[in-house]
Amino acid sequence: MILNKLKKGLLLFGVTLLFACNYNSNVMLKTGKDYAYDAPPSNESSEYIISASDIIEFKLYTNNGSLLVDFTAIKEQSIAVNSSTSFRYLVEFDGQVKLPVIGRLELKGKTIKEVEALLEEKYEKFYIKPFVQVKVINKRVTVFPGGSSKAQIIPLTNNNMKLLEALGAVGGLTDIAKANKIKLIRGDLKNPKVYLFDLSKLEGIKQTDFVLQANDIIYIEPRTEYVKKIIRDVAPIVSLIASTLTLVLVITNLNKN
Fold it and tell me: How far from the centroid of its chain's Cα atoms is residue 150's Cα?
């Protein structure tokens, strides 16, 4: 009688532990079935947009940048290059940048091309036919390729990197990644925009024709490997139950003798 009760108790204990296991504990950024995703970025996002915390590097030349292409003016060009050290400026939280001579300017929300045109216009008051080159040097995205510990931070090496390029930069999706559950999280993390992409079919590529922005998060949801996890989690429990039952049987037989 005692042995039967012990068996039932151990069995109940094992079942309780089994169902208490959280098989989705490693799945991040979950959304409910009825979650309202934002519409994918349109073709309006075909260029990189300056945002707060960007660090811009710009160079200023006169005479429409003639020294950059006039190889007959080698001496002048050498002086210009040596004197044009890379200047870097932070886009502050309010979207403004403090620049020499012209002071503070609102750059947030502008494309690289728009920033260059604006700076040329502002510096025209002080220099003859200014030519400006602008580059954002700290832009990057974070990619979670799905079900692995190989998440990577990818520098946006050009101004027009797109979703497929970022996925290629991390080696593509993992074996257990869901190609139909690719999430892109963008903007203020207190109220982000969340886009969902399905690349399991060729038609899904049509929605990826947009440029990634600094601090975008790309998360590919992994499949849950239930069988493997059940075996992994149940094996120790079964082993414990078997060992306990063996010990009980040995003690019971000794008492009988």
Answer: 12
